[in-house]
Design goal:
elongated, 45% helix, alpha/beta, 17% strand
Length: 363
């Protein structure tokens, strides 16, 4: 893994190294939600090139602080990457700096393509690659390199449902603005894919998939538990596509999933773990109405513990009940082994209580 925690260093360093003397003195400016900004900031300091980064307000706090620590000038402005980009381009024009597009500059694409070269070299009998897609710079460079060395390899693009800009571009036949929502894969939250990247990638990509927030969280959890690797949402979407059973045709095949970023806020990581546990059926919630007389709740907790379920949180509601005045509504969050164990708990509760709401709809 590169020093700043993502694949973006490849394109960033190559681009900075290709600057002429005047450009190196005036510096560069870029718009980024995090990883491109981090890569430019780190290597700009190393190569003594002034770097200014414009980051949208949705950028993780950790990435903003790291850019400042690396010595970059940081401007936090814009609701999304599109607005941040407009400001960065205006600054480039006013101050004579070079604007470096993090997913569309030719040197950026070339740098990201080195991943494809390494994959083809290390996995010569490769069948497919599942590539995260944001602005499409990574998939353009990687696909070009891999297909040049082995045209039979299948290239799958994977993007979050909440910002499916590459899929929208394919449907429109050109890059178009895509309204986006906040996503766990914040590094892929690019409302409009790059023109150079799109034109390069389009004939090389075999299939484009979108994944839900639920499966992105589950992928992050699986990587922590099985691979002992902390991967951000943008780097985990490839595994999310497999977990959501969108690529059954690849079963038994040799597949590469680039885990291309590990920059995730610790607070967001905690939320991802909990969401992943919920998606995996290991964290459940339910609402049940029990007797409010002595022993009513004790009986509930005894039944829960009898099958090995752990009570994580409990809340009592009396005032708004419309049933017996000697009843209480109890909201519980519990930990189970797996989905089958959750089902066992649900059946137990429905057998012993008349009013029960279980799962995501429990309120």
């Amino acid at each position: 893994m590169q020093y700043s925690g993502s694949f973006k260093e490849r394109g960033a360093r190559y681009t900075l190294m290709m600057l002429n003397k005047e450009q190196k003195q005036k510096g560069v400016v870029a718009a980024s939600a995090g990883n491109h900004a981090l890569a430019l900031a780190y290597h700009g300091s190393s190569l003594q090139v002034p770097v200014t980064v414009v980051m949208p307000i949705i950028a993780p706090m950790m990435k903003i602080q790291l850019c400042k620590q690396y010595g970059a000038t940081v401007v936090v402005e814009g609701d999304d990457l599109g607005e941040a980009k407009k400001l960065a381009m205006r600054m480039a024009k006013e101050k004579g700096m070079l604007y470096v597009n993090g997913y569309d500059h030719p040197h950026i694409l070339a740098g990201q393509g080195t991943i494809g070269l390494e994959i083809a070299e290390q996995v010569p009998d490769l069948d497919a690659v599942l590539v995260p897609v944001g602005g499409a710079g990574l998939i353009a460079g990687l696909a070009l390199a891999v297909k040049a060395m082995n045209p039979n390899v299948k290239i799958y693009g994977v993007e979050p449902e909440r910002c499916a800009s590459f899929k929208a571009a394919i449907e429109a036949g050109k890059p178009v603005y895509t309204k986006m929502s906040s996503t766990l894969a914040d590094g892929l939250a690019v409302p409009t894919v790059g023109v150079n990247a799109f034109v390069t990638a389009l004939p090389l990509v075999d299939k484009v998939l979108t994944v839900s927030e639920e499966y992105i969280a589950l992928a992050i959890l699986r990587l922590i538990e099985l691979e002992k690797a902390v991967v951000e949402g943008a780097g985990a979407v490839g595994l999310a596509a497999i977990l959501s059973n969108q690529v059954p045709e690849l079963k038994g095949k040799k597949v590469v999933i680039p885990l291309c970023g590990g920059n995730i806020d610790t607070t967001v990581l905690g939320r991802c773990i909990e969401r992943g546990l919920a998606a995996d059926g290991r964290l459940c919630r339910f609402v049940v109405t029990v007797s409010d007389r002595p022993g009513g709740i004790a009986e509930l907790t005894k039944r829960i513990s009898s099958i090995g379920v752990s009570l994580k949180d409990i809340f009592h509601e009396r005032a708004w009940l419309k049933t017996d005045v000697f009843q209480v509504q109890v909201k519980c969050v519990v930990e189970t082994r797996d989905e089958e164990h959750s089902k066992e708990l649900e059946n137990l509760l429905k057998t012993n209580y008349q009013i029960i709401s279980f799962g995501a709809n429990a309120v």
